[in-house]
């Protein structure tokens, strides 16, 4: 295994014992004390479908992090190193938070669900002299169902991916930034919000978030029977994933009571279909067709806020927010309001608008994003 050290046997044995004890109903004390977050359980070769052309070394890791209910959970992710010898102190790290792929195991990027646009984006970071570490998030390729847009667990998976990668890859520096687009922009903001507090053992420097679906907790409660078609790309698909994510993060919530039979069937199907499959499955079904009753009820509003709401204060490192003005997936006002709220709360935020739509804005922002990262290393 070139350039990646083997995992410490003690950590692997401890992880195996914890999993075995939990599965067998063994000692509660043992099951409650897994290895620290970021502990690597194992390494493996990446499938060729997950390779980046510009990476000299690429490997898949499985590691401990935190799940959506606050319990320890396992995640997977990829480590990509640039060609050539690392600089003194090691390659600086960009922890990549990926956009929406789906919630089923087959949708995990490290299993091969990597778009051409994502390859181009990450190859540019490698070419700029950064190593890339890329979590799949909890439940994508590991036990359970991925809690889509559950900010806290996604953000911690992003941070713990850096811990995991640096613990077994001597070529990596402990200095890192986070970058994410779309769902990943949401995750990046959560990773940024507690990057230094959650992982003081690392050297976190800043965040890049583009196409970020912020402020959804203000909009979702307007959903209900007859909700109009807003003309947004993939709205019903995203709604199905969010509702399923709420089932995972708040298992005591009677979310099924809010769904029509058609909505319940769609949400169930969302657990086995990646994004393009589910988009084809949705057809003409709208959000209003999914919902049997309004979502604007106190218990549900609280759960939605806990699951989705991006913090707008409490950041101790600079944040770069970018958004496409013609975005018809995550409308521009959502990103603009996020940046405005950060600025109002005296956070160190840089905001840039780009002419493209949702997918295009990630590549359009790339020169500014790399310059931002370099300025804060």
From TrEMBL:
Name this polypeptide is given: Prolyl oligopeptidase family serine peptidase
Record keywords: Signal
Protein's UniProt keywords contain Zinc-finger: no
Stored InterPro entries: AB_hydrolase_fold, Lipase_secreted
Gene3D superfamilies on file: alpha/beta hydrolase
Domain of life: Bacteria
A Pfam family it matches: LIP
Signal peptide, first to last residue: 1-31
């Amino acid at each position: 295994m070139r350039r990646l050290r083997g995992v410490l046997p003690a950590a692997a044995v401890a992880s195996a014992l914890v999993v075995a004890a939990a599965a067998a109903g063994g000692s509660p004390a043992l099951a409650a004390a897994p290895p620290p977050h970021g502990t690597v359980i194992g390494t493996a070769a990446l499938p060729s479908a997950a390779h980046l052309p510009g990476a000299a070394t690429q490997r898949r890791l499985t590691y401990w992090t935190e799940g959506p209910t606050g319990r320890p959970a396992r995640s997977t992710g990829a480590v990509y190193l640039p060609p050539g010898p690392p600089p003194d102190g090691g390659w600086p790290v960009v922890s990549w938070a990926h956009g929406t792929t789906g919630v089923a195991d087959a949708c995990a990027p490290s299993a091969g669900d990597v778009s051409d646009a994502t390859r181009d984006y990450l190859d540019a970071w490698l070419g700029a002299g950064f190593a890339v570490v890329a979590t799949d998030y909890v439940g994508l390729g590991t036990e359970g169902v991925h809690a889509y847009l559950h900010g806290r667990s996604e953000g911690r998976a992003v941070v713990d991916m850096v811990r995991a990668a640096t613990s077994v890859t001597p070529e990596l520096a402990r200095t890192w930034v986070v970058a994410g687009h779309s769902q990943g922009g949401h995750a990046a903001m959560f990773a940024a919000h507690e990057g230094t507090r959650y992982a003081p053992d690392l050297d976190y420097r800043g965040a890049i978030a583009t196409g970020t679906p912020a402020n959804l907790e203000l909009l979702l409660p307007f959903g209900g029977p007859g909700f109009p078609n807003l003309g947004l790309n993939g709205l019903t698909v995203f709604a199905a994933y969010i509702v399923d994510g709420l089932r995972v993060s708040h298992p005591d919530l009677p979310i099924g009571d809010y769904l029509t039979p058609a909505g319940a069937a769609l949400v169930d199907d969302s657990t086995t279909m990646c994004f393009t499959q589910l988009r084809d499955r949705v057809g003409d079904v709208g959000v209003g067709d999914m919902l049997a009753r309004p979502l604007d009820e106190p218990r549900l509003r609280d759960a939605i806020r806990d699951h989705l709401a991006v913090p707008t204060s409490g950041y101790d490192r600079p944040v770069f927010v970018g958004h496409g003005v013609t975005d018809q997936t995550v409308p521009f006002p959502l990103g603009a309001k996020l940046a405005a709220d950060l600025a109002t709360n005296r956070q160190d935020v840089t905001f840039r608008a780009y002419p493209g739509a949702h997918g295009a804005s990630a590549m359009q922002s790339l020169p500014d994003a790399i310059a931002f990262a370099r300025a804060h290393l």
